[in-house]
């Protein structure tokens, strides 16, 4: 595939520095463990978060045209926990995204990751070739995506979540979703976008990119980016930052020196431990600052 056919998040995925396959799971082991194969080999020392003290599992979320699969995790025995949406990468609802929801639940959140690509009837986690996966995820209309997220919030409220303390975090394409949802939802209190593309390729299903939506942002967003992301040039991040500042919107950015796209994804070769751990701390502090996390 030529770069012209790839979205910027995918360019970043496909141009990570060379690596040795030592220290990675076999493909069969990765599938057994619940990880996607489309992103490449899966690291053997992935982070595994247990469910001790949590209630977690698969669920169904009522949406406009049916039921959407999802995965949730929440602290057991805690009434009215804050709600945090988890916007996934392009690879579907696989083990890394589920683990992130459990990490958030350990912080006291009712975290839920909706599988908003479900209508295509294919399991994205089982696709091993990005070329086969892209037509599915690129066909997702923004209007439908935002409606699905609103439905997820409504579901979480019915389950006892405190949607007056609503946050969202997302990775890769899900990072873009954070920006889009922050421009859409008046209920959102804060968002954190991990390397979400500020600019979109031409797509009639995506009317406005995050940068174009700068005047419409309704919630403060923290943007976490890698300086060595080959698909998201620092200049585009700086342009988004400038557009937000011009429109007097609350946002902060941190750009990690030498970090590639996907630096938080502990299952991939792109993982950078120091940057990932700092980014997670920054995320916690941001959501706490805007009263999503914490008492």
Automatic annotation (TrEMBL):
<feature type="domain" description="Dienelactone hydrolase">
    <location>
        <begin position="68"/>
        <end position="290"/>
    </location>
</feature>
<protein>
    <submittedName>
        <fullName>Carboxymethylenebutenolidase</fullName>
    </submittedName>
</protein>
<dbReference type="GO" id="GO:0016787">
    <property type="term" value="F:hydrolase activity"/>
</dbReference>
<dbReference type="InterPro" id="IPR051049">
    <property type="entry name" value="Dienelactone_hydrolase-like"/>
</dbReference>
<dbReference type="InterPro" id="IPR006311">
    <property type="entry name" value="TAT_signal"/>
</dbReference>
<dbReference type="InterPro" id="IPR002925">
    <property type="entry name" value="Dienelactn_hydro"/>
</dbReference>
<dbReference type="Pfam" id="PF01738">
    <property type="entry name" value="DLH"/>
</dbReference>
<dbReference type="InterPro" id="IPR029058">
    <property type="entry name" value="AB_hydrolase_fold"/>
</dbReference>
